[in-house]
Structure formats: structure tokens, C-alpha cells
Amino acid sequence: MPRCEQVPTAVDTPVDTVVRRMRALDAALHPRDGVAVFNRVYLTVTETVDRYVDTGRFADRHAAITLDVRFAGRYLDAVAAAVGDGRAPACWRPLFQFRRHPGVRPLQFALAGINAHIGHDLALAVVDTCRTLDCAPAELEDAFDTVGDLLVSLEERIREDLMPGPDLLQIADPLTHLLGSWSLERARDAAWTAARALWALRELPDIAGEFTERLDTAVGLAGRMLLTPLAEPPLRG
After folding, report:
1. Which residues, 6 or more positions from 96, have their beta carbon under 8 angstroms from its beta carbon?
2. DSSP secondary structure code for residue 103 in this structure
């Protein structure tokens, strides 16, 4: 009998593994859970990064994959810490604490997660990647900018999807004023500055540790502000 030819199969990348973990998390969480809201947004971003990798949108494919996986790993580790006995970083605690609050709206959950992930995790992921690849932050700038541009392009769509309504209603809505105090572009720029500072401090671990702790705390305070409840819980009869 003729020998059957083996059909080549695609080899999973580390990004594929991250996507599967996020999809599993999405399936396990209630859709209204604040973590689930952010997870759906981040899953969309990660799937788009995966397509960018496959289509050659990154100048350095290996650097882009490493940065993306290190970046996502910090979010997934924070979720695991919150579920288990560990303690999540301060930047993530507001989202985990308010994830089921009836007065917090979906857009607030999404942007609070983005704030934690960009404001804190991204800077540390750049440093993690530099150590893994034995390179300086400047060599990751292309991948950093591409991922950052993707997030910025999605922000407007996220706002429209999660806060629909007439323009006049949005202007009067306190949510509009609350979220107007936060900018993803500014958060991204600050993350790049923090990454460069941490890399410069790599030979001074005590100072680097203190810098990281203060960064974590500051981002957590911004996240708590973004999650300010805007509606009173319904009265129980």
C-alpha cells in the first residue's frame, strides 16, 4: 500500500500559547466580571500582535515575540496571584477588588486594566526582554512603538463599544469627565521612560527596586481613580 504523506502542521509560537490562556480565562469568567472585560480587550490586542508577527509587520520578529510574551506573562501572573494565595501587584489590586462592583461601568474596567498593564507591566516587560535577549531598550523601540500604536488605535474603538450613546449624553456623563483625565498615549510614553530608567539602574538593585515599587503604587492609585463608582448599587427590597 502507498505510504501516507504527512501533512505539515503549523508550529505554535509562544504568542499562540498566551492566546490560548487568555481564551481559557475568558471562558471561565462571567462576562460582566471586570477582569473578563479587560481580558477580552487584551485578547483582541494579543491576537492582532500574533497576526502582525505572522505577516512580518515587525522588523525583528524574535524581539517582538519575546516582548509580547513577557508583557502578557505579567498580566497572567497577576491574575494567578489574585486567584491563589499570592498578592497581586498594587497596580492590579483595584481591578481585582472592584471587579464585581455594580456601580463601575465596563469601560472603566477596560481602561483600569490597560492603565495597570501599560503603566507598570510594560516597563518591566521591556527590561525582562532586554535581559533575555542581551540588548538595550533602544533595540526594542520598533516593537514597543508598533504594539503601542496598536493599543492607541484600539482605544477609541474600545470607548465607543463600551460607552455607546448620543454625543450630548456622553458630554453630560460623569464617566466622560473621569476618563478625560487619563491618556493611553501619555501612559505609553511614561512606560518607555520608566523602562529606560530601570535599565540604567540595573547595576543598582536597591534603587531599581524602590523605583519599581513607587511606580507600582502610583499606577495603582490611578487605577483606583479610574474605578470610581458612578452609580449607586440598586436598593434591595
Report:
1. 35, 82, 88
2. T
